[in-house]
Amino acid sequence: RQRRPRPDGAGGGGGGGCDSRGPGGEGAGLASSESGGSGFSLAERRRPGGSRPRYEVVRELGAEEVRWFYREDRKTWKPFIGYDSLRIELAYRALGGQREGEAAAAVEPVCVRSGLYEVDVANAESYPVYWNQSEKIPVMRGQWFIDGTWQPLEEEESNLIEQEHLNRFKGQQLQESFDMEVSKPVDGKEAIHSLKLSRNHVDWHSVDEVYLYSDATTSKIARTVTQKLGFSKASSSGTRLHRGYVEEATLEDKPPQTSHIVFVVHGIGQKMDQGRIIKNTAMMRDTARKIEEKYFSNLATHVEFLPVEWRSKLTLDGDTVDSITPDKVRGLRDMLNSSAMDIMYYTSPLYRDELVKGLQQELNRLYSLFCSRNPEFEEKGGKVSIVSHSLGCVITYDIMTGWNPVRLYQQLLQKEEEELEERWMSYEEQHLLEELYVTKQRLREIEERLYGLKASTISKPPVLKFKVENFFCMGSPLAVFLALRGIRPGTSGSQDHILPRTICNRLLNIFHPTDPVAYRLEPLILKHYSNISPVQIHWYNTANPLPYEHMKPSFLNPTKEPTSVTEGESVSAAPSPTTSPVMVRRHYGESITNIGKASILGAASIGKGLGGMLFSRFGRSSTSTPQTLETGKDGAEGDDKKGTTAGSPPLPHSSSGFLEPAVELEHRIDFELREGLVESRYWSAVTSHTAYWSSLDIALFLLTFMYKQDQDDPDKSNLDSL
Question: Where are the compositionally biased (Gly residues) regions (predicted)?
């Protein structure tokens, strides 16, 4: 057979931060690595199912037959993809198998796993590139593998077996027929060669039939008993071993290019559980990979998630708060100091800037590092989105908009001046006010000149080094902060009212219906959206869901919230335009004509006192969904009001207090997760705030918006189902 040509760019970087440095960068040959350059010129036998090629003559394993593995959290060994494994092996062979001395120090680390990690071949460990991690991730070179699971043998044992195999059988013909997958059973065969290990021994029944046996006492007894019963030694207690991995490693098996990076920002509690954002981001990344494989596998690019850990580097007050904390129930107090205290720090004029600067610097550091390792990212128009959780949403918003308390103070002063000018003043007061105005103007001019001189010597960099494409808020209290800063509903229906499109192209607020920390943003833009339900996020396995852009607004049902209510009171009650109504849920797609008001009234009247108040806050009718409309009336009046149904735009409604019912938002902002069919609403109120990270529904939602331009591009595949 002719030698197969080496693929172009044998050592080049793939997607996600792998540059062309390091071993193999000059196109290190795969066939020439320690196999005499004849690896691809031998006759091959390929196993059925597209597995790795196998050769008729025993020779040293080629780089493509070896597979490298990594192990996280002390779980099972996971194989690197072929592209990564091949480059690690070439680096290993550049060391000549020696992991100490000057040669080991000269070999640069190998970039793996879409550029998120690097492998130190000399020390057989891997570490992340973009974040700090105390525990190193061990890596291992696999040559011999267990049948069925294809887990590698420990490297020390594997090296001994490989050395013994080459010493005994190198150059010999393999005895299997050309196209057989399974060799003949070894029943009755005697071992032609054996090797004793520390706790095991290996028997060769033929060149390609190798079994591992445990030398533990129980294993020896079991082997003796089963052999006396007529079973063979191999079938009773032996584990078959395979030489070389089941799949050949190729440079074509590489990750796609990263077209979109997502910075994942944590909220409170990071001091209490350091490293939690790294684990949460890993969960979000893993669920996104599953969704990408299922729905976006035809795209040549992918989305990468990077954790932003901004809390641990801050000093703040040092240990002052800890020193004033009483000792009783110390565990609870420490938990509050490590979590809820972050909110107090952020509202403090003394420490707020430190929190903002910490997050801002970390975002810019990560972006600069990513671009330095992926020089084509900006050239090809790579996009950046931010996913923030809890308090992280507020800090991220303030960084993007440049908001600070000083601005609010200046607005209050300006308002006082306007009120002062409007009231009647004496001649002396008016004269003093004019002098004050002239003095302030003069002071402002001097400050601008001074700032101009400073700006000429020190150029102030932009707050963020990148434009934010999408800003996803999860479990966000941002709406409360904005309301307390004086933001009130407008009349335009534009996102610019709270976040200009020039700063961020799209704002999306994701929340679980029972998350007590989350609040809606849409009613801060248009007041009547407090009576319009948030958009329901599709379940990830929903067949042919309606695209979010095509989902029409639908009304909530305004009801009163007393602890006890009668049917007559409920029917006659008119909702107040200044209060938030109870959100009544219905089954997805269920018609309003099939829902009796008795279920709503019954749900509202359950319990009194504290139970009633809890239910009014967290209660959800088991026969409901927000994409439909219930007028709350019956008889002829109810029939007249039933014109607006699921999928129809909002119409004027006399009892809902709409000022401009024809005005709609340019884009929907509030998106609500669907409740589970069997989940406890009270328990989910406790757990829902931290339940976003591993949600497949959220992963599909995020990717749907981030891949939206690829879907809209007519030259690319159109994912109509999404």
Answer: 9-28
pLDDT digits (tens, 9 = 90+) for 349-398: 888 888 899 999 999 999 999 999 999 999 989 999 999 999 999 999 99
Q: Is 236 a catalytic residue?
A: no
pLDDT of residue 460: 53
Read off the pLDDT band of 640 (50, 70, 90): very low
- The residue with tokens 């330095």 is 372
pLDDT score at 461: 55
96-100, 522-526, 668-672 — which is least confidently predicted?
96-100
CB atoms closer than 10 angstroms to residue 675: 19
| DSSP code, position 267 | -
For 168, the token pair is 């005994």
pLDDT for 660 equals: 42
- In three state form, how does the secondary structure of 463-512 look? CCCCCEEEEEEECCCHHHHHHHCCCCCCCCCCHHHCCCCCCEEEEEEEEC
| Residue 240 to residue 146: CA distance in whole angstroms | 6
Sign of CA dihedral 218, 224, 230, 235: positive
Do residues 221 and 236 lie in contact, with contact meaning Cβ atoms separated by under 8 Å?
no
Q: Which of 126, 390, 624, 695 is catalytic?
A: 390
Q: Residue 628 in contact with residue 554, Cβ under 8 Å?
A: yes
Q: Which residues pair with 508 in a beta bridge?
A: 472
The arithmetic mean of pLDDT across residues 51-68, rounded, is: 79
> Cα–Cα distance between 27 and 255 in angstroms, integer?
18
Binning pLDDT at 50, 70 and 90, where does residue 653 land? very low
Is the CB of residue 52 less than 8 Å from the CB of residue 249? Answer: no
Q: Which domains does the chain have, with CATH numbers?
A: 58-97+106-173+188-243 (no CATH), 257-405+464-548+667-710 (3.40.50)
Judged by DSSP in three states, 91 sits in: helix
Look at the block and give the residue holding tokens 């700090």: 132
- Distance (Å, whole) CA 630 – CA 586: 10
Q: Supply the DSSP symbol for 167.
A: H
Helix (H) or strand (E) holding 242: strand 239-243
Q: Encoding tokens for residue 448?
A: 């601008």
Residue for token pair 């290019």:
257
* Pairing, β 504-511 against β 468-474: parallel
pLDDT, position 243: 92
Nearest to 387 by CA among 538, 279, 507: 507
Nearest Cα residue to 161 out of 229, 102, 244, 89: 244
Give the per-residue pLDDT at 223: 53
Give the residue among 650, 536, 540 at the shortest CA–CA distance from 583: 536
- Is the pLDDT at 28 greater than 90? The verdict is no
Q: How far apart are CA 209 and CA 242, in angstroms?
A: 8
The one-letter amino acid code at 110 reads: V
Q: Is the pTM of this model over 0.85?
A: no
Which range is least confidently modeled, 5-19, 131-145, 553-567?
A: 5-19
pLDDT for position 437: 84
**Whole-number Å distance between alpha carbons of 16 and 256:** 8
Whether the Cβ atoms of residue 721 and residue 545 lie closer than 8 Å to each other:
yes
* 88, 112, 127, 610 from 24: Cα distances, Å: 9, 14, 20, 69
Burial 629-662, CB ≥16 within 10 A → b, else e: bbbbeeeeeeeebeebebeeebeebeebbbeeee
From residue 709, how far is each of 573, 714, 717 by CA, in Å? 47, 10, 11
Joined together, the tokens standing for residue 307 give 């954790």
Is residue 284 classed exposed, middle or buried when 0-12, 13-18 and 19+ CB atoms within 10 A define those classes? buried
Calpha distance 166→150 (Å, rounded): 21
Cα of 507 vs its chain's centroid, Å: 17
Contact of 700 with 296, CB cutoff 8 Å: no
Neighbours of 579 (CB within 10 A): 12
